[in-house]
Amino acid sequence: MTAKLPAWLTDDMPLPTVKKQHHFLAQNIRHLEQLLQHFSQATEQARPQLKHYWPPQIKLLTTLGVVLLLSLNQNPLLLWLILLVELGLLLFLPNFYLRQILRQALISSGVALFLILPSLLLTMPASVVVFSLKTSLILLTLTYYRATSTFSQVVQALKQLHCPNGLIFVIDITLTYLKMLAEFLLGLLQAVSLRTVGPTAHPYRMIGLLFGTLYLKTRDYALALYAAMEARGFIGDYPATPHTTKKRRGHRYLFLRGR
Predict the structure, then answer these.
(1) Global pTM?
(2) Where do transmembrane segments lie in this chain (predicted)?
(3) How would DSSP label each residue in the chain?
């Protein structure tokens, strides 16, 4: 006599399907951490040093000039020449900068070409190639400047170019606000993620609450900053870096000593 298995062991029972979890909080926390790394002084100090040094104002003027030249130029030969020069500059960069510039330039170029794709389909093929090359070169130039320049160098370049102190103040305070609000929003998202247990039915319902809290914090920061500036007597004056002049006699002495 053989023993039979119970019916509940032989029946096929489908496994319950688990709903797809939304990683809204984790993704935004990761993006904010990456954003705060750009504002960190420790990150700037840990970056590898560049072999060639350009003054901040020269680098800024060169970047703006190349972007303007690419925007107004229609000669393909000049475009290829600028491309060769930029590729030559990339050869002197460490691997850290090279990977960052190429990755960001390719992503931004792909997004830009995708956005203007409908208008490109209605034009001539030659115009499509020239316009795509110009767009990619402009984004590569801006990405190179962004990756090889710090925020303090940008402010220093604006001061060396005799920009109004009001403009420098607006840029400086905007960057400071971005850092402070990003730190506050990061802590808020981390607190919400720690208090959340299990998947939520509507993960995007908290966006309005987060932005409302962020707006109130922005208002408090603005009032506190205005009071602190009044207390310290800030008049909106940024000191310029003194220019160093070298005489020809010093150049002659260095040349003869090197020989």
Answers:
(1) 0.64
(2) 77-98, 105-122, 166-189
(3) -PPPPPHHHHS--PPPPPPPPP-HHHHHHHHHHHHHHHH-HHHHHHSPPPSS---HHHHHHHHHHHHHHHHH---HHHHHHHHHHHHHHHHTS-HHHHHHHHHHHHHHHHHHHHHTHHHHTTS-HHHHHHHHHHHHHHHHHHHHHHHH--HHHHHHHHHHTT--HHHHHHHHHHHHHHHHHHHHHHHHHHHHHHH--S--S-GGGGHHHHHHHHHHHHHHHHHHHHHHHHHHT--S--PPPPPP---HHHHHHHHHHH-
